[in-house]
Amino acid sequence: MTTVEEPARREGRIRDAARTKAEILKVATEEFARAGYTGARVDEIAARTRTTKRMIYYYFGGKEQLFTAVLERSYAVIRQAEGDLDVGHLDPVAAIRRLAELTFDHHEAHPDFIRLVSIENIHDAEHIAASETLSSLNSPAIDVIRRILEAGREQGLFTAEVDAVDLHAMISSFCFFRVSNRHTFGALFGRDLTADDRREHYRTMLGDMVIAYLTAERPAA
Amino acid sequence: MTTVEEPARREGRIRDAARTKAEILKVATEEFARAGYTGARVDEIAARTRTTKRMIYYYFGGKEQLFTAVLERSYAVIRQAEGDLDVGHLDPVAAIRRLAELTFDHHEAHPDFIRLVSIENIHDAEHIAASETLSSLNSPAIDVIRRILEAGREQGLFTAEVDAVDLHAMISSFCFFRVSNRHTFGALFGRDLTADDRREHYRTMLGDMVIAYLTAERPAA
DNA sequence: ACGCTAATGTACGAACTGGTTCGTTACTCA
DNA sequence: TGAGTAACGAACCAGTTCGTACATTAGCGT
């Protein structure tokens, strides 16, 4: 049966550490996101790779370290996107809106990342805490927000007393929840927060919300 | 050894279905919240109860149904709180703020509930979908919000074009994220979103955000 | 008093799961 | 060119885990 195809198996390089490692990471990301940390099966990850379980332990050491590696790679992607963002030429209001939209779009485009973060929170972020890569360097988004906030206050546009980290939390909460809780929210309230024809609505809603908060008229303290 | 204590074991009723059932539910809630659905161990739940694993299967049928029962009970609690809320005597702005604070406080007070919902989302809300209790009747909060929104618009206070379900999503997202993602957020940005001395700050921030959004001046459409 | 059933406890097992052991092969570089 | 090493595969193992078969008893109704 399969003996006939054996020669065909030799397509591409048979030995390619980088490729094998990358493929394990990709499949592991899907499997962890699908079933949770405990629910994910090392055997299942191996089976969906063109290599074996042995290689997972060879390259990563174990399930725990594999999950950490998956997290590190996922966070690297969003940091890359945030780092690429250039809002220097925009006025503060437009800049905040642009940043909010970038966050919105990234959450929209990476539901697996959202699930991984949810899973990591269930486990009290112990993998992130143990990872030097993740716990040390912080998000570029914070610096961007900080600069925009300063400019907005100098120009008298922003009145809210809020710092960059808290504003980031506000923006993230909306984007994250919309994706992370879409299943329970949909089941309970009959509304799909991630429906295609509502995406623009929520994107606008987020921007309106943040700008309204930052620019609201406030009684003198 | 233990033979001496055997008579003492007879304190309280030995046969009490309601009590046994309730105790299983309570311990199961903790265990599922702690370790996730797959990570939770039926043996562990049984061990922390004053009964045995046999009873879990006797009363609930299995791990899956037990988890569903845990979810149903948890949602019943928040619906109770929402149903008890009376904002009829408040003006729309104060009423929204009051509702937001109730949501905020409930999330703050029930971190286990948040974890269970996160876990249920990892599993695509399949338990909620299968539960008639949960998928049928909807939250009282939506009705409350709807009435407040109507009043606020009639009085010309609210300008935002938003319906009750989306506003509920906005409020929930902030409250939920603050608790659900506190571990990853804390590890990555060095800020504890649930620190005691910041609670009032975030409570106010939520109210300000929602009111600012609802009352913002908007260019004529 | 007593029988009947709901309620409970014990022990066990089949299937699974993370991790390892042992052996093989492709590639490289002296 | 051939020896050394990185990369790889198959089979295996020990510890778990959900679920159940079987035995037992408390307590209610009559």
UniProtKB/TrEMBL annotation, chains A, B:
One Pfam family recorded for the sequence: TetR_C_29
Give coiled-coil spans as residue ranges.
none
> Is DNA-binding given among the entry's keywords?
yes
> For the HTH tetR-type domain, which residue ranges apply?
18-78
Record's keyword annotation contains Glycoprotein: no
Q: Which residues bind DNA?
A: 41-60
What are the record keywords, sorted? DNA-binding
Q: Which PANTHER family match?
A: HTH-TYPE TRANSCRIPTIONAL REPRESSOR SCO4008, TRANSCRIPTIONAL REPRESSOR
**Full protein name:** TetR family transcriptional regulator
The species this protein belongs to is: Streptomyces kunmingensis
User: What does the record give as the organism's lineage?
Assistant: Bacteria, Bacillati, Actinomycetota, Actinomycetes, Kitasatosporales
